[in-house]
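User: Here's a structure from my thesis project, written as structure tokens. My advisor, Dr. K., wants to see whether a designed sequence matches the one we expressed. Can you design one independently, without my sequence as a hint?
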């Protein structure tokens, strides 16, 4: 058993460092950018100017449809459509690119609702106080509301990232040699599924535990000036 662990572990750790973690990090960053844009589109009230209002309402309808679509369909199906389905209409993507697109779009849809909820949780008094100081809507949003929303959204967004790290195992279904796929290949050679999948689970647990520690650290740092929070 120990011989199998010693020979298999470097290969699995290498796949984790080469594919699993980069795929999760890149997808989360892109998804977060998309989530912020989507949340702001859904959060900001449209202008009374008709020349701006109607295009903005169309943009909001697209944002609502995007969130509905990716929250209403399984992630695995989304990956299959992007990687196996799009080539039928002439769009050929590499497995890694397809995975990044799929994970980013899925993450963006869920995270946008987290960010929008965080924005809505900031009291209206904060807006009113800013306006009395002659802050514009943009200044109020960027300097007062968003910093508070970030602190509120941090725990659920951290959970989303941890979940994304585990969801990268689905990338094996579109031929990416990430850590879980490597464990499957090794299992096909040594016929030790329990051992190999336990090792894979342990590696995921280690990474997610480190991310959980980082989450708690960031929560303490962003809440140190909040009354009643831990120092």
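Assistant: Designed independently from the structure alone:
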């Amino acid at each position: 058993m120990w011989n199998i662990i010693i020979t298999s572990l470097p290969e699995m750790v290498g796949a984790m460092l080469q594919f699993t973690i980069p795929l999760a990090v890149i997808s989360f960053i892109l998804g977060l950018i998309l989530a912020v844009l989507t949340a702001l589109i859904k959060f900001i009230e449209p202008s009374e100017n008709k020349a701006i209002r109607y295009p903005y309402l169309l943009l909001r309808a697209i944002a609502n449809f995007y969130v509905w679509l990716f929250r209403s369909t399984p992630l695995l199906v989304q990956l299959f459509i992007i990687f196996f389905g799009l080539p039928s209409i002439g769009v050929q993507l590499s497995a890694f690119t397809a995975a990044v697109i799929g994970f980013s779009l899925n993450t963006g849809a869920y995270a946008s609702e987290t960010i929008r909820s965080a924005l809505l949780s900031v009291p209206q008094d904060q807006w009113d106080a800013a306006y009395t100081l002659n802050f514009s809507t943009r200044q109020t949003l960027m300097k007062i509301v968003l910093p508070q929303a970030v602190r509120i959204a941090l725990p659920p967004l951290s959970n989303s990232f941890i979940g994304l790290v585990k969801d990268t195992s689905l990338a094996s279904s579109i031929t990416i040699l990430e850590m879980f796929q490597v464990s499957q290949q090794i299992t096909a050679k040594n016929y030790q599924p329990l051992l190999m999948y336990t090792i894979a689970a342990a590696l995921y647990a280690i990474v997610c535990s480190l991310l959980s520690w980082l989450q708690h650290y960031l929560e303490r740092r962003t809440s140190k000036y909040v009354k009643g929070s831990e120092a």
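When you compare it with your expressed construct, this may help: The CA atoms of residues 74 and 105 lie 12 Å apart.
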